[in-house]
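Help: why these numbers?

___
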Amino acid sequence: MSVRIGVAVALLLAAVGLNLVCAVRLSALNRGHKLPVFTARYAVKPSMRVMAYRGAGAGCAGMGAAVLMDGPWDLELVHRMLFAGLASGTAVLLPALVVSVAHNRAVRAETIEFP
């Protein structure tokens, strides 16, 4: 494995970690309220520090995708771009989606009344 691929993987893992920290903190801030899955309209407005984690994660994902696109594979440019976009999109969206779904299930379970 070349050094470039290692750097790209490290940046993408950092992006996953930063976006996971942001999602967990948003979940804690909005305890008792549902988290939006596709919009950023939260019941409790997050602080700039929490949103800075998301921005740093997106930046790491973008840099990781750029390094990954310049990797040592023999693929067409379009295929490298698709692969890099898929990797960066997964690094940004997957942590938020997983935490939001788990949070919303817990909120729904709290609000269900049993007879």
Summary: DSSP finds three helices and no strands in the chain.
